[in-house]
Design a protein that fits this description.
Helix content: under 10%
Largest sheet: 11 strands, antiparallel
Radius of gyration: 29 Å
Number of strands: 35
Structural class: mainly beta
Distance between the termini: 63 Å
Number of helices: 3
């Protein structure tokens, strides 16, 4: 009898749990909800704000809470925007796990009132059509899983389903939510990208469509790295690093543990390669080389001097070596750094995120003040124990030992430096032009490349050839129904 009572109590508990789940207004027990369920939940709250409130926008929100991430047409998080005729403010309603998680009054984009009676099709059904007709797949790098938006375009409710196509490119399928018809299907395709070699009068593009993240030129060698199959939100899909001994005519793949973030040659043409958390010396086509540094946290910034002192910024610390990695010292950074540099004498210099210049002397960091207090450093590099600082008014040079300042006039504002051993280059605003900056005297920088139509990430020069690393840009293009 005691056993039967225990079983009876257990069954009653199970029954009460089931009844409780059924009583939650039809919302699934995992608390992921469809687009139409999100509308109803938001509308009930918006009516308390204003009885005449109407919906103008809805979107699912990216999250990492588990669940199906849209694979069933449902999401944990949604944001809705409502308007009313009695105020110029909008009410933003945030939903998380089937409940109102926040509200906010403000102003946002609006394409007009969405007529809720016109929404005949919900997100699960239209996702099913998108999968069947266009082989729509989950987003991976950004907007993970499947996402959904709802707007009114010319009075028609347009429900968009977002994901990836077969080639992992960001894709949007637009439906008329009133009749379920496909209005448009677009994916973001890359254009541009690759390695540009520029000589006087000639310009050649190789590795077309690739994301070339970096390029370095040694005495007779050239190395490039990046991603062979980049997407708009990732350049680590098919990472590579390659070496050329014949001015880029042929390439040999090198060994790397992971995707490459930095690389350089020392004076003996030995190749150093940095990955996310490691630094290797002597990398070749047959060997990864020798690991000289391994960190628990990611390498954020890295610098090397001409005589190959090395400084690495990671998690608020600078790791530095003056003996090719045989022994590493550590220095705690007093303020977050935007740039870290190391001189031929082993001096550490940093540019803080607040644009203050700090130099490490013995065990302390001291501030280097600009000769003109109105000049704010935009970027900074150290070459041959000389500090180069670009500002809105020009480029300042300071000898780290003597402390004297000199200034270089420039035709355009240089916002970012690229340092390659003894060579220094500069980007202008939005990367529209690249200048070569003489590091031995105060001659005016020379424009070496007009980059208006390119997204340039890196540049180096070998002999009479300028090598320019570019990455693709992306634009929406109409897609066709894929053949199965």
């Amino acid at each position: 009898m005691k056993f039967l009572k225990i079983i009876s109590c257990f069954l009653i508990v199970i029954f009460l749990v089931i009844v409780n789940l059924i009583g939650h207004e039809g919302i699934a027990s995992d608390r992921e909800i469809t687009l139409k369920e999100a509308i109803q939940l938001g509308l009930d709250r918006a009516k308390k704000w204003d009885e005449n409130a109407y919906l103008v926008m809805l979107t699912s929100v990216d999250e990492d809470m588990g669940g199906t991430r849209g694979a069933t047409g449902k999401r944990y998080k949604w944001t809705l925007s409502f308007e009313t005729t009695s105020t110029d403010q909008q009410l933003f309603i945030f939903i998380s796990k089937g409940e109102i998680s926040g509200i906010h009054e403000g102003k946002g984009p609006s394409s007009g009132a969405i007529k809720l009676d016109d929404i005949k099709f919900d997100s699960p059904y239209l996702l099913k059509i998108a999968k069947e007709k266009y082989d729509l797949q989950k987003g991976v790098d950004w907007a993970t899983g499947y996402h959904f938006t709802l707007d009114s375009i010319d009075g028609t409710p347009i429900l968009k389903v977002f994901g990836n196509d077969r080639d992992s490119r960001f894709t949007s399928i637009s439906f008329n939510a009133q009749n379920g018809d496909v209005v448009s299907a677009n994916h973001k395709l890359p254009y541009g990208g690759g390695l540009i070699s520029k000589r006087i009068g000639t310009e050649n593009l190789t590795k077309k469509g690739m994301a070339i993240m970096g390029v370095i030129a040694g005495n007779n060698n050239l190395v490039v790295w990046g991603d062979k199959k980049p997407t708009q939100f990732s350049t680590t899909k098919q990472p590579f690093i390659e070496w050329s001994h014949n001015n880029g005519e042929t390439w040999t793949e090198l060994h790397a543990n992971n995707y490459v973030t930095h690389a350089w040659f020392d004076m003996n043409d030995q190749l150093y390669v940095a990955t996310e958390k490691e630094l290797w010396a002597g990398t070749t086509s047959k060997s990864k080389g020798t690991k000289i540094l391994s960190l628990d946290q990611s390498i954020e910034k890295i610098d090397y001097s001409i005589n190959n002192h090395i400084a690495v910024l990671s998690n608020g610390k600078v790791y530095y070596t003056t003996n090719l990695g045989e022994r590493w010292e550590q220095a705690i950074v007093p303020k977050p750094l935007y740039v870290v540099q190391i001189s031929d004498n082993g001096d550490l210099v940093g540019l803080t995120e607040e644009r203050k210049i700090l130099q490490k002397t013995n065990d302390e960091w001291t501030e280097i003040t600009m000769p003109n207090s109105n000049d704010e450093p935009l970027d900074m590099k150290v070459i041959n124990n000389r500090l180069f600082i670009t500002t809105q008014s020009g480029i300042w040079i300071r000898d780290l030992q003597e402390g004297n300042w000199r200034k270089i006039k420039v035709d355009e504002e240089v916002v970012k430096f690229i340092k390659k051993g003894k060579k220094l280059f500069g980007y202008t605003h939005r990367g529209e032009a690249i200048y070569s900056i003489n590091t031995k005297d105060e001659r005016k920088p020379e424009k070496v490349f007009d980059a208006v139509d390119f997204i340039v990430l890196d540049v180096d020069i070998m002999g009479d050839t300028l090598w320019i690393a570019t990455i693709p840009n992306y634009s929406w293009e109409e897609m066709t129904i894929p053949q199965r």
